[in-house]
Amino acid sequence: MLINLTMHPEIRAKNVKLCREKGILLPTFKQMCDPSLIPESILKKLDQVGLWDVNPVNLYRINWHNEPKEKGGRFGGVNYIEIPREITGVKAHIYALVGKYFPTGAHKVGATYSCLAPALVTGNFDAEEQQAVWPSTGNYCRGGAYNSALLGCKSIAILPEGMSKERFDWLKTVAGEVIATPGCESNVKEIFDKCHELDKERGTHIVIFNQFEQFENYLWHYTVTGSAIIEVLKQLGVKSENVRGYVSSTGSGGTLAAGDQLKDVYPDIKIGSGEALQCPTLLRNGFGGHRIEGIGDKHVPWIHNVKNTDMILAIDDQDCMDIYRLFNEPAGIAYLKKQGVSDKDIANLQYFGISGIGNMLGAIKMAKYYELDEDDVVFTVLTDSSVMYKSRLPELTAQQGKFDETEAAKVLAAALHHQGIENALELTYYEKLRVHNLKYYTWIEQQGKTAEELRAQWYDRSYWKQLPPMAKQIDELIESFNKEILGQ
Question: Which three-class secondary structure state does DSSP give residue 81?
Answer without folding.
Answer: strand
